[in-house]
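We give the chain.
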Amino acid sequence: MPAQQKKIIFCIAGVLSFACALGTAAAIGTQLWVKGTILCKTGALLVNATGQELEKFIGKIQYGLFYGERVRQCGLGGRPFQFSFFPDLLKVIPASIHVSVILFCTVLIIFALVGAGFFMFNAFGSPYETLHGPVGLYLWSFIACSCGCLIMILFSSEVKIHHLSEKIANFKEGSFTFKTQSEQFANSFWIILVCSLVHFLNALLIRFAGFEFPFSKSKDSGTTTGAVDLMY
């Protein structure tokens, strides 16, 4: 492939990596990871609410990695409540998983920035082997993509398996019990998915630029090596 086309491909990959770093950083600071509705089960049972009457007992909840908000409704109107994970909810949530998600988000941002820098270096500089050459580009893209996948897996398990929304909804609730009516992942979670796909796409762009995958050998080199071995 001509050098000019390689520069264009590396520039595109570098811009995409930088955009993923900014997107991940913005996603961490929002509370748009999960949105859902919560049912005041105790209040609904007390009045035996059914049908449209249940709407008076259905509140809302949304949260991110650091803070969130819930609106509890038990027949007397909505009452908002702001909360933060640190240090309020540390005893309620699976803290090890939650902290791991934050750490992997940080690693994703770092390696996305590193990858963007090396893509630009390969586009406008003189690339050399190991960290600056094709192997390094594959390495940064693979690490960033892996971190994005781990973030989604860990956070999904925290929400679905450990019932994070219900634990938050029942935080500091004595006589009332809340049950998750519905929940879905919001924009910030899907930004992580997009970033993972972008880093996988960057690896394909490197291959498209003409670089072999790491540790791959051409058939000619293998044939030549075999012929030399036969000579001895």
Summary: The longest strand covers residues 178-185. DSSP finds seven helices and five strands in the chain. The chain has one domain: 3-209.
